[in-house]
Amino acid sequence: MSIHKEDRERVAWLRDEIDRHNYQYYVLDEPLVPDSEYDRLLRELQGLEHKYPELITPESPTQRVGAKPLAAFGEVQHRLPMLSLDNAFDEHELADFDRRVRERLGIEGEISYAAEPKLDGLAISLRYEDGLLMQAATRGDGSQGEEVTQNVRTIDTVPLRLLGQGWPRVLEVRGEIYIPKSGFNALNERARKAGEKAFANPRNAAAGSLRQLDPRITAKRPLAMYCYGFGEIEGGPLADTHSAAIKRLVAWGLRISPELQVLEGVEACLAYYHGIAERREGLDYDIDGVVFKVDAFAQQQQLGFVSRAPRWAIAQKFPAQEELTRVEAVEFQVGRTGAVTPVARLEPVFVGGVTVSNATLHNMDEVERKDVRVGDTVFVRRAGDVIPEVVRVIPERRPSQTEQITLPTSCPVCGSEVIKPEGEAVARCTGGLFCSAQRGASIKHFASRRAMDIEGLGDKLVDQLVEQGLVHDLADIYSLKKAQLAGLERMAEKSAQNLIDALEKSKQTSLERFLFALGVREVGEATARNLARHFGSLAAIEQAPVEELQTVSDVGPIVASHVAAFFRQSHNLEVIEKLQRAGIQWQEGAPVELPQHPLAGLTFVLTGTLSRPRDEIKAELLALGAKVSGSVSKKTSYVVAGEAAGSKLEKARSLGVEILDEAGLVQVLTQYV
DNA sequence: TTGCCTCGAGATCA
DNA sequence: CTCGAGGCAA
Predict the structure, then answer these.
(1) Given phi > 0 = left and psi -120 to 50 = alpha, else beta, which region is A487?
(2) What string of H, E and C letters represents the secondary structure of A352-405?
(3) Does residue A401 surpass a pLDDT of 80?
(4) Residue A349: enclosing H or E segment and its boundaries?
(5) In angstroms, how far is C4 C1' from A457 CA?
(6) Nucleotides in chain B near protein beta carbons (<7 Å)
(7) Distance CA A121, CA A525 (A)
(8) Integer Cα distance of A573 and A542 in angstroms
């Protein structure tokens, strides 16, 4: 069927018109027409597209909701990493941040900061190519996230095509996806009426909505987005300042925070923070603080990054919400290494969007400092937004006749002696593998994904295996028979076979995984990898003297002694042998020469009065493979400036060479070494 | 640490 | 229908 010219033109006109109304409504918050008129346009477009399916394009406003559920989310490599922000928890820390920024930039006057509220949602990266939304990805670990394009397309406030003109061919925009409070309440109201479970808080509802495989469900969730930053942009930045660049997004149909402001100096930032804090309740979205960014891109570039966070931005967080509750009990948990940790069992209380019923007390020093007792009324908060924490006891509300919490002399699980070495905070059960708690925890660790990755061997199953005495040491899991498993809960034929298969599959592994899985104290994934690479074979590690172990990067005297002690214990060696007899194997390689000179290629210049003799610092740098020069040139990597530094500092500034104070030097060293 | 989603499979009931 | 496990996000 041929398409009438006027229909084709009408379709194009309708799309422009609908996109324009969306823009007015969502971005500018100034609708031009009543909803009924908007609906009429949309229906007319749907009618025409129904008549001429060949006119349908992915960016048509009728095409937000894809028809088919996904099988799984794909992975996305971020071209520019999605970083996290440093936090400031009080005015003091914010002032420190401002001072550091000015010092690094060598500016006496006030810095311009772009400020906006920090939304409590989840971070997202949108990629537009030739003006069309091609990809939306979650943050993930910062360098690799999940592709959730199908779901993000359903969000009304995210344009499928950029409006206007002048956008770069490739534009990555970053922002926060969230659910407005009003939408959240309506959503939960609906869920309650339908007899479904309500969401605990808007953030989790938003995160859950984005993880739906079926975009039709996502489309029913009232998600929204504000843009606050950038990823890759073809042709470079959109303006000289962050605020100007962000404001350009508006013309292209992207939504930005109406609260965005440029402020001069730290005093203005503080005032802004207090202003937002006062209006917090009235805003239609949850926020957990305010973000300040150095506005000028040139200054941002000069400031650079520290590991995973930019030096040019900070999040000033609101004080964590605190609630009162009662301590029902203090129990002692025994971990994989035997560490005995006091945990407060609390009367469940809703704090910061979740129900908290447990809070670790870390160690006895902490218990004594806070003097927490059973029956106490305490303030609880979520520290750093995540970990529940007992803030303090309200002594006036302590019931009479309470007792101080004391460290048990014997392990609550196995009864072995508990020892707290002088000067150490952590107490330990001496039961070793005799202790079922340690046994269980070490098996769980062994089976975990980053270790041996034995699918199906989860917490509940391990608890059962240990409880029933089917497993005594790590190696025993490989001699489990289907018949033995059959007696356990939720373990019928199929599950048992799956587990046996998973065990079999895990036998092919790598030295680093195996080393990590063994659970040697202080040996995490990174250290296991370093050891494996350095020595190449298990035998070499087993026999290595402490001095040799210490030559491995990241291994100091403490880690080295733990490693050596582990391999001196005969029962550990027996378990390893048993595991190998069970069929665990890996490729043993030749030891890899690790670069002995982590600072190779860097040139330092020392100037001014430093806290130690210059020769001493110089020797250290040389030992790490760096060059130390007497004069500053373009090739100088860093100038380390102490008190009363003179012309060399001047020269460094004029050449744009990075300048470090001693603290900065330590940071750089930890970065490279 | 908690909450959410998804999947597979066991448990339960008609 | 319910549970356990796994994965993700803050």
Answers:
(1) alpha
(2) CCEEEEEEECCCHHHHHHHCCCCCCEEEEEEECCCEEEEEEECHHHCCCCCCCC
(3) yes
(4) strand A339-351
(5) 10
(6) 1-11
(7) 30
(8) 9
- Does residue A354 contact residue A324 with C-beta atoms inside 8 Å? no
Q: How far is the CA of A452 from the C1' of C8 (A)?
A: 21
pLDDT category of residue A103 using cuts at 50, 70 and 90: very high
Maximum Cα interatomic distance, chain A, rounded to a whole number of Å: 90
Q: How far is CA A289 from CA A52, A118, A219, A272, A459, in A?
A: 50, 5, 28, 11, 36
Whole-number Å distance between alpha carbons of A395 and A86: 34
Q: How many angstroms is C1' of B11 away from CA of A465?
A: 21
Distance of alpha carbon A218 from alpha carbon A208, whole angstroms: 9
Task: Report the footprint of strand C: residues with C-beta closer than 7 angstroms.
Answer: A 120-123, 138-141, 145-146, 203, 207, 211, 385-386, 449, 454-461, 489-490
For nucleotide B11, the protein residue with its alpha carbon nearest to C1' is: A490
pLDDT for A635 equals 67
Burial A435-446 (b: 16+ CB within 10 A, else e): bbbbbbbbbbbb
Task: Give CA–CA dist A342/A410, Å, rounded.
Answer: 14
The pLDDT of residue A277 is above 70: yes
Which residue among A51, A118, A482, A578 is the active-site one? A118
Nearest nucleotide by C1' from A123 CA? C9
Q: What does the alpha-carbon distance between residue A458 and residue A19 come to, in Å, rounded to a whole number?
A: 49
- Distance in angstroms: CA A121, C1' C10: 9
pTM over 0.85? The answer is no
> Nearest nucleotide to A69 by CA–C1' distance?
B6
Q: Is A482 marked active-site?
A: no
- Strands (DSSP E) contained in A567-619 are 603-607
Give dist(CA A74, CA A145) in Å, integer. 9
The pLDDT of residue A186 is: 93
